[in-house]
Amino acid sequence: MPQRYATNPAQIPGMTTADLRETYLVPDVFVPGEVTVVYTHHDRIVLGGAVPDGGTLALTGYPEIRSEYFLEHRELGIVNVGGAGTVTADGEVYELVTGACLYLGRGIRDVVFEDAGVGSGAQFYLFSAPAHTAYPAALVSPGEGTVRELGDQVTSNRRTLNQYIHENGVQSCQIVMGVTQLHPGSMWNTMPAHTHDRRTECYLYFDVPADARVIHLLGERDETRHLVVADRQAVISPSWSLHSGVGTAAYSFVWAMAGENQAFDDMDAAPVTELK
Q1: Cα angle vertex 93, ends 88, 95, to 5°?
Q2: Is 75 annotated as a binding residue?
Q3: Looking at the domain 11-274, which fold is it?
Q4: Domain spans in the chain, listed from the N-terminal domain onward
Q5: Which of 129, 187, 252, 259 is the one with CA 20 to 30 A from 164?
Q6: Residue 128 has pLDDT above 80, yes or no
Q7: What angle do CA 25, 51, 128 make, to 5 degrees?
Q8: b or e along 197-231 (b: 16 or more beta carbons within 10 Å of the residue's beta carbon)?
Q9: 201 labelled as ligand-binding?
Q10: How confident is the model at residue 194 (pLDDT cuts 50, 70, 90)?
Q11: Tell me: the pLDDT tens digits for 48-76?
Q12: Residue 41 annotated as binding site
């Protein structure tokens, strides 16, 4: 399990583009026939992907988390960003269509990923955080969570936000997770940018056209940097870093957080006039 060590704002000014990408970008989330995971020391989050590619894949324990099985001391949010697939958790089979979200709580021993049929092409995005207690597994289909319409076409950030795992939805210890889809003609995923010193947030960008990219902003408001992000790549955003992004075409993204609280609106805006 590759590890990404925690960073602080003072490191940003001296980082090269390569440094930034090695520290905050996860470029190869989905590898056919594999479960890939990355451990970040920011809030001890594990993120990754599972691509059954016609077979079955099991989520195992890893020496880096010192657990007999993956969910011995953790919880897990899963969003399917590919074709239809199934997740079997301790014998219970959950069918995930494209865009569905599954929560699995602490204590589930066996987790297996499969395609729903030959060539269905399921791609499961995984986001995990430590858990102090067990909450029930829960599956949410697209549109069944809390749906919020945000932004304005005038400012190119009209978007539909689907909240799945949150304090008023699927219960968890600390994970907050959902999917945002930008409307045609909109490119900003949030503006103004914001921070929340109480939570680390990870973005998985998907539905990004092959010839398009997302420019993801990070850093402090008076010392910003950016990452150029392609389809199905993820970004680790520390709690002290602002996060916002603009694409060369409309796209979608999975947002997921873990940390001090689960209040979605607990954020500190960084007005564009303050950015440098």
Answers
A1: 105
A2: no
A3: Jelly Rolls (2.60.120)
A4: 11-274
A5: 187
A6: yes
A7: 55
A8: ebbbbbbbbbbbeeeebbebbbbbbeebbbbebeb
A9: yes
A10: confident
A11: 999 999 999 999 999 999 999 999 999 99
A12: no
Identify the pLDDT of residue 268. Answer: 81
Beta-strand pair 35-40/3-4: parallel
CA dihedral 73, 77, 80, 81 (to 10 degrees): -110
What confidence score (pLDDT) does residue 254 get?
Answer: 97
Mean pLDDT of the chain: 93
The residue whose two tokens read 């199934």 is 86
- Can you read off the two tokens belonging to residue 121? 């092409």
Residue 96's contacts (CB-CB under 8 Å, 6 or more residues apart) are: 78, 80, 84, 85, 86, 87, 102, 122, 124, 139
194 is in an annotated binding site: yes
Q: Is 0.85 surpassed by the pTM of this model? A: yes
Q: Are 110 and 88 in contact (CB under 8 A)?
A: yes
Whole-number Å distance between alpha carbons of 178 and 78 = 10
Residue 266 has pLDDT above 80, yes or no: no
